[in-house]
Amino acid sequence: MARDAIFLAALSLGHESIHAQNTLTIIPIETQPYSPCSLPNVTDQHAGAEISIVDVIFSGSFQIPVADQEQIANSIKQKTHGTSLDAVTDEALERVRDGWQDRGYFKVQVTGETNTLTSSPVNQRIVIRVHVDEGERYTLSGVTFKNNKAISNARALRNLFPIKDGDIFSREKIGIGLDNLRKAYGELGYLNFTSVPDTQFDDENKSVSLEIDVDEGVQFVVGSINVLGLDEPTRQELLNELPIKPGQIYNSRLWEAALRSSVAAPCECPNHEQLREDNKSGIVTLTFDFRACAEN
């Protein structure tokens, strides 16, 4: 990827801020690569220390407003943590990429580097510099579907996506639509539903179209609901309260409601609810196992 410039900025130790620019003073990478002298770098890093990003510095020539840049940077600082510097850096760069793609810059390219400000056995504070090549801004030209049989109404499927044709392309909104699609099929018993979007670019018109290949899988029916580890009155109370019953088409929304029922929810034991599927028969067996909870 060709990168034409990088922004050099000084940061005072311990000063937490966001650097978001519309136009930047730039120095070509080919002739004057970045020197880390502008930032203090602590090389004595402690393995296992919690890493936090205290500053984000963007460089590049941007079209998105400064307010949007600040929003992206704040999201990185607030949500990106960990104990591996490489993992934290990768996550931060992915959040930058997501932020630009949510604003239409689908082909954005990002690169970054970090500097450590302070380091202790429990905490490492870093600054991340991110060079962004925005590329072109795209709109969504359309969303189509193929191999959708259980739900043949393409308009109904399209309405699951909170983005209209002609809107600025948003990776987040497409993701929401795909999740809504999964939930819609889940309510019809298609437990293993998957969808694969194929992205087509029209660079002349700066637009993106999606063709979503649907794999519905098997439609499941609830075979039985097992309750283990409860006395008989409580077991019957749980079964009577559940919104999902044996013999019904499996419904993911009703199953999630069952997990929140007043009898089932109090158990905080991991894996106290189980869902087993038989793809050959199309039968799903639901189990609540409270035996470990009773032991605690």
Q: Could you please describe the fold and organization of this structure?
A:
This protein is α/β, with parallel strands linked by helices and 296 residues long. It folds into 3 domains: 17-133, Roll (Ubiquitin-like (UB roll)), CATH 3.10.20; 139-215, Roll (Ubiquitin-like (UB roll)), CATH 3.10.20; 221-295, Ubiquitin-like (UB roll) (Roll), CATH 3.10.20. Helix content is 25%, strand content 28%. It is built from 7 helices and 11 strands. It has helices at 66-79, 85-101, 154-158, 171-186, 232-241, 252-259, 291-295, and strands spanning 17-19, 50-59, 81-82, 109-119, 123-133, 139-146, 194-202, 207-215, 221-228, 273-278, 283-289. The strands form 3 sheets. Strands 1, 2, 3, 4 and 5 form a 5-stranded mixed β-sheet that branches. It has a 3-stranded mixed β-sheet with strand order 6-8-7. Strand 4 (109-119) and strand 5 form a beta hairpin. Helix 1 (66-79) runs antiparallel to helix 2 (85-101). The longest helix has 17 residues, at 85-101. The protein is flat. Mean pLDDT is 82; it is low at 1-45.
